């Protein structure tokens, strides 16, 4: 502890950029400026319970849930293939999963715009083979597509890293004791990979719930998610109080689900990516 | 042990990436036999076991089980069970669940499973460990669980892949005796892989000595020790003096500039041979009374005996004796005809 002073810059950083902003958010969420000055109020939180905003929250949770499920259904088999004997030593495949993550998030999402738009690559191809152009953008499907595309690696990697650590002799032992490949999966591989699944779900669901870029670009403003709503309060309508209240509610929801997840992971002696 | 054959390997060969690992293995194993595959690491003994277990397919050749070809049968359809080198217990199950795994797959009655698991835990001295998690167990206890997990399925054959390799010496000795007792009690065929020659000699009915993918010798422990077929077996099983010699005529061999009487015949006159003498068969006698003479180079105390190196005519003899001769003393060496083993040179 002699060199504790090394941490001082970090402490300053922590106070300036995390602690103070958080306090400000709490402050804004429970106050409003009236003629008498700044007064305490809970009306921002009350406002959240209006049906229209509850709908936004539910829609966010729902779309994130759908995306997470699709990511899991696509990601688990992919992780299994990558971890299988045949591909285990082919690092290129893992690289293919990781490379998109090196590119800017916005850029990747914009790329989908040019693919899906009315005069985009896919529609051009469709009309080339003589079919009518389709409305591919600005609907729920496009938003889910964007989420799945952007967050799939976050599902694949933790599952992959758990699967690759499963001792091959455990699987052989199960086969030896009479388990065919279906039973081996159900009783051995899947239960042992659960920590990876849990951290995969966490890492996809959290950003999917709070995203506002994907829904704005691919949803075309018709799909206001909780992230968009918060963004609006700060950038357009100037209702910082309501925006702060929304942020706090989201934070509490996320903390809550993280707590559940981490408790589950601890129980299973989780490996996971982190 | 009966004479009824249970497993037979016919001309089994295996190559990994163009490297031959097994070359034309022919072997049969009888019911209730304790067979040990013995050899240095990389000799192909584990591969042989894995082919019997169904985890590897032979490149050529056949595996017969009770006369039926099972070469392409997957492991889960074979009537044998395996105890793996690193136990390979299921980490997400407790001791009882691990042992019951095979029975649950067979959809056996729950009460019967419980009873069988209990019997097994008694057999391997782990009574009361049912609900313990496997990683709270010591290495020896984990190994017992692995053995119980395999035996509870009442297999005809139990395969054991260096099961005691990770245990310390004392525990290993204890487990050797326990395993042998279990095998006798249940009357199951054991196929046991080890590189520890002492373990093989202690436990086996039959030892199969392997080297570089080839079976060197098959025989009882006593045969293998007393009548090694070639210099490799002699060297691998126990310690040996292996010396170049010349077969002068039947029953006479020359080495160390001396003609010795021996019990071997049927060689060409003046054929070059390997002469094998066990260290305990080199008898040291007072100077002038021996067939040859030598000077003691070093003495090590080994507990039961002294291990000495005696130089004589350019040959360094390894000698085990309960009597110590001081370093630099001159001693006589006697070797009886009985203790001289003549082997054809392999090249």
In brief, what are we looking at here?
By secondary structure, chain A is an all-alpha fold. Chain A has helices at residues 8-29, 43-48, 51-83, 91-102, 105-116, 121-128, 140-163, 168-176, 181-210, 213-219, 226-235, 240-267, and strands spanning 31-34, 37-40.
Structure characteristics:
heterodimer, A: 274 residues, mainly alpha, MetI-like fold, 2 domains, two-stranded antiparallel sheet, 12 helices, 2 strands, 73% helix, globular, disordered C terminus, B: 347 residues, alpha+beta, Rossmann fold, OB fold (Dihydrolipoamide Acetyltransferase, E2P), 6-stranded mixed β-sheet, 5-stranded antiparallel β-sheet, 8 helices, 20 strands, 24% helix, 36% strand, elongated
What do these coordinates show?
The complex is a heterodimer of chains A (274) and B (347). Chain A is mainly α. Chain A has 2 domains: 1-41, no CATH class; 50-267, Orthogonal Bundle (MetI-like fold). In chain A, 73% of the residues lie in helices and 3% in strands. Chain A contains 12 helices and 2 strands; from the N terminus they run αββααααααααααα. A two-stranded antiparallel ribbon of chain A has the order 1-2. The longest helix of chain A is centred in the N-terminal third of the chain and has 33 residues, at 51-83. The radius of gyration of chain A is 23 Å and the shape is globular. Chain B is 24% helix and 36% strand. In chain B, strands 6-7-8-3-9-10 form a 6-stranded mixed sheet, sandwiched between helices. A 5-stranded antiparallel sheet of chain B has the order 13-12-11-14-20. Chain B has a 5-stranded antiparallel sheet with strand order 15-19-16-17-18, with no helix packed on it. In chain B, helix 2 (95-105) crosses helix 3 (110-123) and helix 3 packs across helix 4 (139-151). The radius of gyration of chain B is 24 Å and the shape is elongated. In chain B, strand 9 and strand 10 (214-219) form a beta hairpin. Chain B has 2 domains: 5-233, 3-Layer(aba) Sandwich (Rossmann fold), CATH 3.40.50.300; 239-344, Nucleic acid-binding proteins (OB fold (Dihydrolipoamide Acetyltransferase, E2P), Beta Barrel), CATH 2.40.50. Chain B is built from 8 helices and 20 strands. Chain B has 347 residues and is an alpha+beta fold. The interface between A and B is medium-sized, with 18 and 23 residues.
